[in-house]
Amino acid sequence: MQTHKFDAVIVGAGGAGLMAALYASKGGADEAVVSKLYPTRSHTGAAQGGVGAALGNIDEDKPIWHAYDTVKGGDYLTDQNAAEELANEAVDAVIELEHMGLPFDRTPDGRISQRRFGGHTSNFGEKPVPRACHAADRTGHMILQTLYQQCIKENVRFFDEFHVVDLIVNNGKSAGVVAWDLSTGELHGFQA
Asked: How many whole angstroms separate alpha carbon 70 and alpha carbon 62?
């Protein structure tokens, strides 16, 4: 079995995996991304309509209203602290993606355009509000393209079409993964 050694191994090359790889690379880590698919084919691409963030570029909006909608949309089973954190961080995340080059649609005055999407309301459910930041009808694909491009720029190492089949545990702590190379049928060990 071939073995590889890295400071960090990230399993999955969707939006979260690519962002983790990007941050790890900027922190100086030698990291690998192990993914069943080529990164730009990940499921994040299914997010076509947009990403919710209370920018308030079209109508007044606030992160607390976004948090309320998230909790209500989860039938009040949602962790309310997590929903509040998500809503507060969403604004900065969208702006960060914009600064990385994500081609969001624009308002006539140049701000990120927003549109209505199910469950987005203002003033705690009073009326619908445009909160979805979008890049035409391919927002998820644009997120993947932007993050993948940034990872390539940072020399992130990718192992595409490798299916993770086991976790390596040493003294109760994760120490890597075992993955099957789909093109050759060989097993690879990734130590981290």
From this structure: 13
State pLDDT tens for residues 16-53.
999 999 999 999 999 999 999 999 999 999 988 999 99
Quote the DSSP letter at residue 147: H
**Helix spans in the chain (H):** 15-26, 63-73, 80-100, 139-153
Tokens describing residue 184: 């050759």
Task: Indicate if the alpha-carbon torsion angle 98, 103, 105, 110 is positive or negative.
Answer: positive
Phi, psi dihedral angles at 3 (to 5 degrees) = -125, 150
Distance between CA atoms of 127 and 108, rounded to whole angstroms?
A: 24
Instruction: Return phi, psi of residue 169, to 5°.
Output: -120, 130
The candidate with the shortest Cα–Cα distance to 62, out of 71, 52, 74, 72, is 52
Distance CA 112, CA 104 (A): 6
CA distances from 75 to 50, 67, 78, 79, 113 (A): 22, 13, 7, 11, 29
Place of tokens 């890049």: 135
Is 64 buried (19+), middle (13-18) or exposed (0-12) by CB count in 10 A? Answer: middle
C-alpha triplet 48, 52, 56: angle, nearest 5°: 125
pTM score over 0.85: yes
Instruction: Give the pLDDT score at 56.
Output: 98
Q: Which amino acid makes up residue 45?
A: G
**CA-based radius of gyration for the chain:** 19
